[in-house]
Design goal:
Blueprint lengths: L5 E8 L5 H14 L5 E8 L5 E3 L21 E5 L6 E4 L2 H6 L6 E4 L10 H9 L8 H8 L1 H10 L7 E5 H6 L1 H11 L4 E5 L9 E3 L2 H11 L5 E6 L5 E9 L4 E2 L4 E2 L8 H5 L13 E2 L6 H17 L4 E10 L4 E8 L7 H5 L5 H20 L9 H5 L6
Parallel strand pairs: 1-2, 1-6
Antiparallel strand pairs: 2-3, 3-4, 4-5, 7-10, 8-9, 8-10, 11-12, 11-15, 13-14, 15-16
Length: 388
C-alpha cells in the first residue's frame, strides 16, 4: 500500500560549487532506490537557495542548463519547529492544504550548505531523522585544516601542511610564501580548506606557481591549506559504513592523467549521469594485502576520530613499494555515495540506500534517548535580581 511506504525527502542541488555533482548523485539514488519500500520526495535547492518540490525533479532531462525546462516547480519552506517539521508551499492557502511531511531526510548536497553541517543542524533543530553524518562530523569533514589536526592527534599519518586566512595572504604574501618554502618545500598542493570535488586545487613547483595557486584558492574560501607534495604516489580510497558497528569497503585506485584528479576527471569522463562512478579506477586496488588492511584500519580510525555516521569515503596517498601512506581527507557525503565501492564489496546500490536509511533512523532513535533539557531553580533564585 502507498501509505505504508517510508517517505524519504531527498535534498539535492544547493548553493555550492558542487551543485551539478549533487544533482548527479541524486539522480543515481532516485534510479536505484526500492520504490516498493520508499516514496521519494525530491527537494531541489536551486543556486539561489530556493527549495523546490515536484515529482518531475527526479528526471535528469529536466535539468538542462539548470533552467528546469518545462517544469514550474512550486517553492516550499522547511518549517523546522519540532512540533511541525514539514515542507510547506509558499502562500497561506497553499501552505494550509499542501504540506508535505517526510519520515526521514536524505541530504545529497555536496559541499557548502549541505555537507558542512548546516543542513544537518537544521534537521537536528527540527528533531527529524536524516541520513549520514551529524553536525560536528560534517563540519570537521568539510574543513581540511581541522580534520588534519584531528587525524594527527589520532595517530593517523598526515603530510606536513600549513594553513592560513585569506586576510593573512592579502596582508603578508611574502611572509606566507617564505614560510611555505621553508617548512614544506616543493612541490606542494594548494587547496581551499572547505571545498571538495577538486575545485580550486592546484599543484605548485616553484614560487610563481605557488603565488598563482593561492590567488586561485582564495576565490573559493577564506581559509587555505598548503600541503607537502609526495612524489611517486598513487591515490587509494575506501569507504566506511555504519554508526557504531562499522563495515569497511574494498579499496580503489583512481586513475589520473594529471598531477591532480580534476573536477572533469571525477565527474565528466563517464557522461553527465555517471558522476564519481564514471571515474577510471581499479577496484579492488592493485596493492598487497598488508597495505590494504592497514589502509582499511586507518579508514575506520578516521571515521571514528570525527565521530562520523552513515557513510564516508576516506582518501589516501600511498607508495605501494615501501608501504608508506598518508591520509588526504575524509568525505562525509561522497560523490555517488561511493556505491561503486560497495558493489565490489557485495552490497548493491539499492541495499546500500536501504542501509543508509536504516542507520539514519537508528541514529535519530539514539539521539532522542538523550536528555536535552535540565530543569533547575536558577531562574527562580535570580528573579529578585542578579548578584554581582
Amino acid at each position: 500500500m502507498e501509505n505504508s511506504k517510508i517517505k524519504v525527502a531527498a535534498v539535492f542541488g544547493g548553493r555550492s560549487v558542487e551543485h551539478e555533482v549533487s544533482i548527479v548523485t541524486a539522480m543515481q539514488a532516485f534510479e536505484s532506490i526500492d520504490r516498493d519500500k520508499y516514496e521519494i520526495i525530491p527537494v531541489y535547492i536551486d543556486k539561489s537557495g530556493r527549495w523546490l518540490v515536484d515529482k518531475r525533479l527526479e528526471k535528469i532531462e529536466n535539468f538542462k542548463n539548470l533552467k528546469l525546462s518545462g517544469v514550474k516547480a512550486p517553492e516550499y519552506i522547511f518549517q523546522a519547529s519540532p512540533s511541525v517539521k514539514v515542507l510547506a508551499p509558499q502562500g497561506f492557502l497553499k501552505s494550509f492544504f499542501n504540506k508535505i511531511r517526510a519520515d526521514i531526510y536524505m541530504p545529497l548536497i555536496h559541499g557548502t550548505f549541505g555537507e558542512d553541517g548546516t543542513l544537518q543542524g537544521l534537521f537536528e533543530m527540527a528533531g527529524i531523522p536524516y541520513t549520514g553524518c551529524g553536525v560536528a562530523a560534517s563540519a570537521i569533514g568539510m574543513d581540511k585544516i581541522i580534520q588534519k589536526a584531528v587525524f594527527k592527534d589520532a595517530g593517523i599519518p598526515v603530510v606536513k601542511y600549513s594553513g592560513f586566512l585569506k586576510s593573512e595572504w592579502e596582508n603578508d604574501r611574502g611572509g606566507i610564501l617564505k614560510n611555505v618554502e621553508q617548512t614544506l618545500g616543493y612541490p606542494v598542493f594548494v587547496k581551499p580548506a572547505n571545498l571538495g570535488s577538486s575545485v580550486g586545487i592546484s599543484k605548485a613547483g616553484n614560487i610563481k606557481e605557488l603565488e598563482n595557486a593561492i590567488d586561485i584558492a582564495v576565490n573559493f574560501d577564506r581559509r587555505i591549506v598548503v600541503e607537502e607534495g609526495k612524489e611517486n604516489i598513487v591515490e587509494i580510497n575506501c569507504s566506511v559504513l555504519g554508526n557504531e558497528a562499522l563495515k569497511v569497503s574494498v579499496c580503489e585506485q583512481p586513475i589520473k592523467v594529471r598531477d591532480v584528479l580534476t573536477y572533469e576527471d571525477k565527474y565528466l569522463k563517464g557522461g553527465k549521469t555517471k558522476g564519481m562512478a564514471g571515474l577510471s579506477r581499479l577496484v579492488p586496488a592493485p596493492i598487497n594485502e598488508e597495505l590494504t588492511k592497514r589502509i582499511q584500519e586507518m579508514s575506520l580510525k578516521a571515521f571514528k576520530a570525527i565521530d562520523a555516521s552513515g557513510i564516508s569515503r576516506i582518501d589516501f596517498m600511498a607508495r605501494p613499494e615501501s608501504g608508506e601512506f598518508w591520509i588526504t581527507e575524509i568525505n562525509t557525503l561522497p560523490g555517488s555515495l561511493s556505491f561503486y565501492l560497495w558493489e565490489k564489496s557485495g552490497l548493491d546500490f539499492p541495499d546500500l540506500l536501504d542501509k543508509l536509511i536504516e542507520l539514519g533512523f537508528e541514529r535519530h532513535k539514539n539521539r532522542q534517548a538523550l536528555m536535552f533539557s535540565y530543569d533547575s531553580e536558577l531562574i527562580s533564585k535570580t528573579a529578585g535580581g542578579i548578584q554581582k
